[in-house]
């Protein structure tokens, strides 16, 4: 065939166009990665450590010290086993601290963006890969987990590669000789097994991916395909790996799995979708995400129609439709599983993070499908339009990208201001001010151990601790650090009496929810706030304080209502002119409180004149009133009575008010009287 100058010109133009497109995509991808790096680095540098991060860092430190994440209690820390070794390795090279501990997650997060672009481009087209990568760059959960010293970014990376390798494994290999084809099939399946096992040892949730991927292989190639000698060895490796991972869990952490299954089981046949859906719904149907989910549903629906037309033979479909259906299988299975079978106390949005890249790819496929259908129909009508169809597809894709940025940028940047509990800062204060004989207790032993360089003296908690302790030398100790369990008010009293100073480092929520009434009362009466940062407080007890000798005691049955608070009673020391009057009010919440309420205690004479007054927060501010529940908590007031008071009975009156606005919640109400001689 003879080529004309016009043909040569077309080839040149096509080559230039392709090179220009490749250059443009490369530049855009570089900008995308730079944006992703900036967002994740800002999170890494500015947000305090999530409490579980301390466990990873402590396990990595133990790995550096003894060669494996074996805790002082003797147990093996099995969560994110591979991630622990990666963190320890980075720490060994660069020094283990908050930044280097979080660095592996950042790297895996960026690598996942590259991976999702590559697989989107290969299995769908370049525009699908671009949209999916853009979505992952701005996904708030991806920013968070790429900036934390945990295993989720690493898990997501290897899980995504495992799904991709599984899809590649079911594709018909190129026409070669039989030996070459078998070797290629074997290589693909072994690659799938490798990525699956890397994900499995990053986090055991990976096991949820195996059933749908196995189903996909059978749907594409038939069940006998799995019995072929170039296929079954890879699956045998996976099954051995699953068995080994389970054995490590059982042997490395004796009693842990059984305790969790008894206290709050991982898997329970609840089938309570109505209760589970609100936890995961924001990830799929939040206003800025709903169009993406609908686009994914559209892509799957179109692929199913094509599948029906092909006689239900998925291998006969276009790669675009095959990828859509295959990637939808693990996403749909994991979503259905966590909505129906995951135990009620394990319903957390992070457990869908494993398959969120699949959701992004499906949504991108749906958007691209619509754009292609739109311009394909027009290109068939007008030749001049057909020559520019690809340009128009990219123009519309750019418009969709702009809409995606407009809708997702604010949620993406908002995570950079969403601080978490500041255990890192408060424990740093304790480390700087701790004296040699001080005792440190906390409900967060790994944080204590990593920051202070040695385990806390006591693991202080009374509720929801059974799975975190193990018996050692006939004493219950924290699994991760070996700190002795302190779960009784009398134990706390004994520690305060013995030690010159005792630090209690805890956050307000755990203080309000993990302890019984008598323990809380001891904390409020014996400890003083020393340092508070980001919801965490270092409380300090400097020797035992004997309670004042109360002379007047009054109880209310039923409790006396003060708006959303109720007074169950009060007690006071004997009152003398010119001396301090100690009064302890006892409050409980009768309705949810959404703000800080303060109380004002007043001593009023017979003429209605206030002669002494003290304002302040109930529970001395150690427990904020928005965390007051049914437990009665003390409110200690110390008033200085004027020296020239006349003898007689003086009334006690109380006002409850909103600290921020000054609005009165209730009062002044009289609660009793005290005699002054």
Keywords summarizing the entry:
677 residues, alpha+beta, Immunoglobulin-like, 17% strand, elongated
Describe the secondary structure blueprint for this structure:
Elements: H1 5-46, H2 51-66, H3 81-94, H4 98-123, H5 126-138, H6 140-145, H7 152-170, H8 178-200, H9 210-221, H10 232-252, H11 256-263, H12 273-285, H13 290-309, H14 319-340, H15 356-379, H16 383-387, H17 389-414, H18 423-433, E1 439-442, H19 445-452, E2 458-460, E3 469-472, E4 475-478, E5 484-486, H20 489-498, E6 502-507, H21 508-513, H22 517-526, E7 528-533, E8 536-541, E9 550-562, E10 565-573, E11 580-589, E12 597-604, E13 610-616, E14 633-640, E15 648-658, E16 664-676
| CATH fold name of the domain at 550-676 | Immunoglobulin-like
Q: Largest sheet, described in full?
A: 6 strands, mixed
Give the overall form: elongated
Mean of pLDDT: 90
In angstroms, what is the radius of gyration?
A: 32 Å
Do you know the CATH architecture of the domain at 550-676? Sandwich
Put simply, the count of helices is 22
The top-level CATH class of the domain at 550-676 is: Mainly Beta
Strand order in space, largest sheet: 5-2-1-6-8-7
Structural class: alpha+beta
Low-confidence stretches: none
Overall number of strands:
16
Give the termini separation. Answer: 122 Å
Residue share in helix: 40-55%
Strand % is 15-25%
Description:
Helices cover 52% and strands 17% of the residues. It is an alpha+beta fold and 677 residues long. Among the domains are: 151-254, no CATH class; 423-541; 550-676, Immunoglobulin-like, CATH 2.60.40.770. The strands form four sheets. It has a six-stranded mixed sheet with strand order 5-2-1-6-8-7, with helices on both faces. Helix 3 (81-94) crosses helix 4 (98-123) and helix 18 (423-433) packs across helix 19. The radius of gyration is 32 Å and the shape is elongated.
């Amino acid at each position: 065939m003879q080529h004309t100058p016009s043909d040569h010109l077309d080839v040149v133009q096509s080559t230039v166009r392709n090179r220009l497109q490749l250059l443009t995509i490369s530049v855009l991808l570089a900008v995308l990665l730079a944006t992703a790096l900036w967002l994740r680095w800002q999170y890494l540098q500015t947000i305090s450590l999530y409490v579980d991060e301390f466990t990873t860092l402590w396990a990595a430190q133990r790995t550096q010290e003894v060669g494996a994440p074996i805790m002082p209690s003797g147990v093996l820390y099995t969560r994110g086993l591979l991630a622990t070794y990666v963190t320890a390795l980075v720490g060994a090279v660069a020094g283990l601290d908050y930044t280097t501990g979080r660095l592996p997650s950042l790297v895996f997060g960026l690598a996942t963006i590259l991976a999702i672009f590559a697989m989107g481009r290969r299995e769908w087209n370049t525009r699908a890969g671009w949209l999916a990568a853009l979505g992952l760059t701005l996904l708030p959960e991806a920013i968070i987990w790429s900036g934390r010293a945990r295993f989720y970014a690493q898990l997501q990376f290897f899980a995504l590669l495992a799904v991709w390798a599984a899809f590649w494994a079911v594709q018909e290999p190129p026409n070669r000789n039989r030996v070459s084809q078998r070797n290629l099939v074997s290589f693909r399946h072994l690659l799938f097994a490798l990525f699956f096992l890397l994900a499995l040892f990053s986090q055991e949730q990976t096991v949820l991916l195996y059933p749908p991927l196995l189903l996909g292989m059978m749907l594409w190639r038939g069940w006998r395909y799995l019995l072929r000698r170039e296929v079954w060895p890879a699956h045998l490796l996976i099954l051995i790996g699953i068995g080994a991972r389970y054995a490590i869990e059982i042997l490395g952490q004796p009693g842990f799995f059984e305790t969790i299954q008894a206290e709050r089981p991982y898997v329970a046949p609840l089938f309570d979708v109505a209760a589970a859906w609100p936890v995961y719904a924001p990830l799929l149907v939040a206003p800025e995400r709903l169009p993406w989910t609908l686009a994914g549903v559209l892509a799957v629906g179109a692929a199913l129609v094509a599948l029906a037309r092909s006689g239900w033979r998925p291998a006969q479909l276009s790669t675009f439709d095959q990828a859509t259906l295959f990637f939808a299988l693990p996403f749909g299975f994991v979503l259905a599983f966590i909505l129906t079978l995951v135990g009620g106390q394990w319903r957390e949005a992070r457990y869908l993070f494993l398959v969120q890249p699949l959701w992004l790819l499906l949504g991108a496929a749906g958007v691209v499908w619509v754009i292609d259908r739109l311009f394909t129909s027009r290109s068939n009508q007008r030749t001049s339009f057909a020559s520019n169809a690809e340009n128009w597809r990219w123009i519309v894709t750019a418009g969709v990208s702009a809409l995606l940025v407009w809708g997702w940028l604010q949620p993406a940047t908002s995570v950079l201001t969403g601080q978490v509990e500041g255990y890192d800062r408060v424990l740093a204060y304790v480390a700087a001010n701790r004296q040699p004989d001080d005792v440190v207790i906390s409900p967060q032993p790994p944080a204590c151990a990593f920051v202070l360089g040695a385990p806390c003296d006591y693991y202080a908690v009374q509720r929801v601790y059974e799975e975190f302790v193990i018996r050692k030398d006939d004493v219950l100790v924290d699994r991760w650090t070996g700190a002795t369990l302190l779960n009784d008010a009398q134990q706390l009293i004994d520690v305060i009496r013995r030690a010159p100073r005792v630090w209690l480092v805890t956050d307000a929520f755990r203080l309000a929810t993990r302890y019984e009434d008598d323990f809380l009362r001891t904390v409020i009466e014996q400890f003083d706030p020393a340092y508070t940062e980001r919801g965490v407080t270092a409380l300090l007890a400097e020797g035992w304080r004997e309670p004042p000798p109360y002379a007047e005691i009054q109880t209310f049955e039923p409790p006396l209502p003060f708006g959303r608070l109720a007074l169950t009673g009060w007690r006071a020391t004997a009152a003398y002119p010119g001396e301090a009057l100690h009064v302890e009010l006892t409050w409980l919440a009768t309705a949810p409180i959404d703000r800080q309420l303060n109380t004002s205690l007043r001593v009023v004479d017979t003429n209605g004149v206030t002669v002494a007054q003290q304002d302040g927060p109930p529970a001395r501010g150690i427990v904020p009133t928005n965390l007051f529940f049914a437990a009665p908590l003390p409110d200690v007031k110390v008033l200085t009575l004027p020296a020239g008071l006349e003898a007689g009975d003086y009334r006690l009156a109380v006002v409850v008010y909103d600290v921020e606005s000054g609005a009165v919640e209730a009062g002044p109400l009289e609660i009793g009287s005290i005699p002054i001689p």
